[in-house]
Specification:
It is a single chain. By secondary structure, this protein is an alpha/beta fold. It folds into 2 domains: 85 residues, Rossmann fold; 108 residues, Hexapeptide repeat proteins (UDP N-Acetylglucosamine Acyltransferase, domain 1). It is 14% helix and 29% strand. The strands form 4 sheets. The chain has an 8-stranded mixed β-sheet with strand order 6-9-12-15-18-21-23-24. It has a 6-stranded parallel β-sheet with strand order 7-10-13-16-19-22, with no helix packed on it.
Length: 228
């Protein structure tokens, strides 16, 4: 399931909580050797983490050559996934292949498609013919129903239940314990609140919450402070 070369060492982009978790899971479950961490120079506050160096992202290819290293961007849903998405593009432009992690404790059916820079935590169930794009995070314990599609740059919190034939547009955020009935379409940049029960389609940039879920009197750009 991992589309990257296991012979290469891995450099993790980020040094926060998600980066620490990614290091732990890649190292102890996927068997990857962690060469170091990289953050943008303006956020560089430490010189090492877990006994490997933390360096400026702007200098990453000089220290960790892409010929010998893969990269993983370990940034959560900051700015509605914009920061993670931007750094993925920057890492690709520097010549890195982006690693994907799928937990050995996840259930993934044989014909599921998963893109690069994805992180699939333990106890996810990903059913028949699901397609997951690039740069998608599925935190622990989600159910992704058959033939559903998750487009690029999305973030799912834990214990989300997605019924069959659903589709999520790019850069969505899906909150913990939310539930979607079958054949729901969720628009680009949409936000589904924690515990929401979604029984009808969600539009682009729409924020929905409640049971049954209804649209809030705001949109996702305002919630995340993104300029139009």
């Amino acid at each position: 399931m991992n589309a990257t070369s296991p012979q290469k060492k891995l450099v993790i982009i980020g040094d926060g909580e998600f980066a620490e978790i990614a290091c732990e899971y890649f190292k102890h479950d996927a068997g990857r050797e962690i060469a170091g961490f990289a953050v943008e120079r303006n956020f560089l506050k430490k010189d090492s983490l877990f006994d490997v160096p933390v360096i400026a992202f702007e200098e990453i290819e000089q220290r960790f050559a892409p010929e010998h290293h893969d990269a993983f961007v370990a940034i959560p849903y900051t700015q509605l996934n914009r920061v993670r998405t931007r750094l993925c593009a920057a890492a690709r432009a520097k010549g890195y292949r982006l690693a994907t992690y799928v937990s050995s404790a996840a259930f993934v059916w044989r014909n599921v498609e998963i893109g690069e820079n994805c992180f699939i935590f333990e106890n996810n169930v990903i059913q028949y013919s699901v397609r997951i794009g690039n740069n998608v995070v599925l935190w622990s314990g989600n159910h992704i129903g058959h033939r559903s599609v998750i487009e690029d740059n999305c973030f799912f919190a834990s214990h989300v239940v997605v019924s069959g034939y659903c589709r999520f547009g790019e850069s969505c955020f899906v909150g913990v314990n939310s539930t979607l009935r079958d054949q729901i379409t969720v628009g680009r940049d949409a936000v589904i609140g924690a515990g929401a029960v979604v029984v009808k389609n969600v539009g682009d940039r729409q924020v929905v919450r409640g049971n049954p879920a209804v649209a809030a009197d705001t949109d996702s750009f305002k919630v995340f402070g993104i300029a139009d």
